[in-house]
Amino acid sequence: GKGRRWEVKKVTTTCPYCGVGCQFDLNVKNGKVIGVTSTDGEVNGRALCVKGRFGYGFIHHPDRLTTPLIKKDGKFVEATWDEAVDLIVKKIGSIKEKCGPDALGLLSSARVTNEENYLMNKLARAVIGTNNIDHCARLCHAPTVAGMATAYGSGAMTNSFAEIPGADFILISGTNTTDTHPVAGAMIKQAARNGSTLVVVDPRKTELAKLAKYHLQIKSGTDIALFNGLANVIIAEGLCDKEFVNNRTEDFEAFKATVAKYTPEYVEGITGIRAETIREVALGYAKAKNASIFFTMGITQHICGTHNVFSIANLCMLCGQIGKESSGVNPLRGQNNVQGSCDMGALPVVYTGYQSITVEENRKKFAAAWNVQELPAKIGLTVGELLGECGKSIKGMYIMGENPVISDPDANQVMHELKKLDFLVVQDIFLTETAQFADVVLPGASFAEKDGTFTNTERHVQLVRKAIEPIGNSKPDWEIICMVATAMGYPMSYGSAAEIMDEVASLTPSYAGISFARLEKGSLQWPCLSADHPGTKFLHSGKFARGLGKFHAVEHIPPDELPDNEYPFILSTGRRRYHYHTGTMTQRTGALEVFYPTEYLEVSCPDAEKLGVCDGDRVRVASRRGQVEVAVKITDTVVPGLVFTSFQYPDVPINRLTNPARDPISKIPDLKVCAVKIDKVG
Ligand code: SF4
């Protein structure tokens, strides 16, 4: 901090960036956040990554939206809250009247609090009358939620970070953890240094891959073959946990029959990993005392994303490596509150706590609590479906805290679709690339300006505390939603965020015991079933959430778009340590953009030679859908034939190239593999 210590107020709160959920103190002087210092966080201790430590400058950035805006003749003009809300009510009302409630779609946000997501879900379902609500979890862990919920009965991380040191075998698949979840990455590094066997499955040579005992540098999109291959060895060697399989699972025989053909030699042909290595890793996993698997988008962002998750879920059950301390499957959720926004029902088919909208009893329960005659039973549209229907069945959208113009695949098409809407509301803290398309922009308050809770990736519900007053005329998102709902004729008012959580708890068994009063004393991990329930450290002890764990027989399928003569490279995308998601916050901190000012394309040395490019040369990367220019970085992180960059720099809008082909089950797009060509510029 820059202020004298006695002038500085410290407010303990939760990091607004990644799903690790570190806690820190915002240092406040004269109503301004002037620094971040460590506190004793329950998840992170005193550790913070560069984003948490230095990424606060966006809070007072001059670009912050400070007043509602209404577009007139193609230009935004400042408006009062009354004018903006009146226009929203009029436009949404007339779309609803003419075309019905399902002509409207809402995107909620993994960046805002649980309480705000809960109210967005209520606004969609009880006030507008549609289940057309989704958010960017569709682009990250929709396959996890779909896959693990079907296999185990719950889509969440089965274990906690505190259990990492107890795992003698750690398998990391498709996660560049030291960049995307740095504090968790540090814990994994520490475990490896203390003797845990570390295995990394990744087409890229990440920092953890360099540290690992085994780096399985598989060909992109061949995960199912690999996991089936590991299972094949374990069954052939008689190492499966028969007691666990017999007592706690079902559908084993079909799975066993399917993996029979995935011998190590067969799998070597698909993945490029030596048969002998596959054997060694399989034996290591099966014989480990406690084995933990971690995965992220390298598993999920494929047209077979849900099947990838099934293949991991199968392996755990086969060896009984789940339902106990330090053993299980741990999908690391990306955004600060993406676990919470799913928990709060910002999804087209569930209310809070994954209570399905298709069950009449649930609809009746929520209708009674929300004081409406009935709630819609028709399953809503996902993000991709909503965007695809713009101008067709979808006439109006309300987007809170999301930036699909940068984050979603085939971004040229996304922009084209948004233009077709009759009416678009965007609620955000900056005038994002998506907000530019809006008819009305509402200024939300940042995490520093409001109370609420975030749920981190290991199901820890933690307090977000107000440190300063909202900037300018901005308002906390929950207050804005209340204003809009009330103006639409559905009176919605709460004295505080705590009151909203009380309502969530009353309707949601897994959050039933959670209240702000308890959270003041310490965070709670759901399921937390009653006021005296201590919360749950690891899941599926003694029994899976769905009863028996379910095996799924899944086959390898190739990615939707593979290289050919015209587009000879595979492009894969991801994230960088210094930036967050579409960069709206981290590119405005006065610090992180100095550490990492621009984006580049990772190219292998042999490919650089072939292309005739040196480090720093600019290239044009083109797919069948679009093109961008970017500087080259020659690196051994990628193998020949593979190039990599992040989607986090608006000046390198790489999602204009990516493939919108989707997993038929979870509707996640294949962001990890698309075919591109590369030419030197000039
Ligand atoms: Fe924030 Fe994640 Fe970094 Fe922790 S690891 S400080 S939660 S960005």
TrEMBL record:
What does the entry give for GO biological process? formate metabolic process; respiratory electron transport chain
Residues in domain 4Fe-4S Mo/W bis-MGD-type?
Answer: 8-63
GO CC term (a single one): membrane
- Top-level taxonomic group: Bacteria
MF terms from GO for this chain are: 2 iron, 2 sulfur cluster binding; 4 iron, 4 sulfur cluster binding; formate dehydrogenase (NAD+) activity; metal ion binding; molybdopterin cofactor binding; NADH dehydrogenase activity
Coiled coil region boundaries: none
The Enzyme Commission number assigned here is: 1.17.99.7
The record's keywords, sorted A to Z, are: 2Fe-2S, 4Fe-4S, Iron, Iron-sulfur, Metal-binding, Oxidoreductase, Repeat
Q: Which family does it belong to?
A: In the C-terminal section; belongs to the prokaryotic molybdopterin-containing oxidoreductase family.
Q: What is this protein called?
A: Formate dehydrogenase H
